[in-house]
């Protein structure tokens, strides 16, 4: 199933999206994890596209979406950008899937626009203690900028690679080793390129997700919801 790409205008810029199965069945919207973009969801898009219209926008500040963001946006801001993009695409009601950061955004969409969400899937939501939350906000997603020695290139490569090997990625000792191998080099390269596209803004969605008060917000969900990991 071919995965297509496009842009829609929203207040403050443009949102880039990928979709598959246009015109088929009930729409399902997919929201990707941080870092990266909807490219990471391309296999899932293609699978859904065999029977229904699947749409995956790049979150604001990631991938090819070019949207004005404040210095420290919250998850509600990302939810508004996604809803604006879905309005521009003419999508009224849809099923909604979000993974990691995308799960927080998806949950907020279901809370502020419950009449539009038929069913919700939350995949891989992190629920941290206050101490863990503070550490993640302080260390997990540092603000980055290009430099003339290209140190940012090596940082980005190790960031992308080490997220596959350690949790959290910056704790590179045996105690924090994940029982996984590295993905193929081509997959690492694709993710690296997506992170580099949004080098100066990638951290905003991460920090919004880490700061999101899931314990207060999730009990208010009224749509049928599946939580998985």
Task: Describe the protein's architecture and organization.
This protein is α/β, with parallel strands linked by helices. Helix content is 36%, strand content 18%. It has helices at 42-49, 75-88, 101-112, 130-139, 151-162, 185-197, 202-211, 214-217; strands at 4-10, 13-20, 28-31, 54-57, 66-67, 94-99, 117-123, 225-228. Strands 1, 2, 3, 4, 5, 6, 7 and 8 form an eight-stranded mixed β-sheet that branches. It is globular and about 45 Å long. The model has no long low-confidence stretch (mean pLDDT 96).
What would you say about this model in short?
The chain is of the alpha/beta class and 229 residues long. Helices cover 36% and strands 18% of the residues.
Radius of gyration: 17 Å
Major sheet: 8 strands, mixed
The overall pLDDT, averaged over residues, is 96
- Distinct helical segment count: 8
Supply the key terms.
229 residues, alpha/beta, 8 helices, 18% strand
Helix and strand arrangement:
Elements: E1 4-10, E2 13-20, E3 28-31, H1 42-49, E4 54-57, E5 66-67, H2 75-88, E6 94-99, H3 101-112, E7 117-123, H4 130-139, H5 151-162, H6 185-197, H7 202-211, H8 214-217, E8 225-228
Parallel strand pairs: 3-4, 3-6, 6-7, 7-8
Antiparallel strand pairs: 1-2, 2-4, 2-5
Helix pairs in contact: 2-3, 3-7, 4-7, 5-6
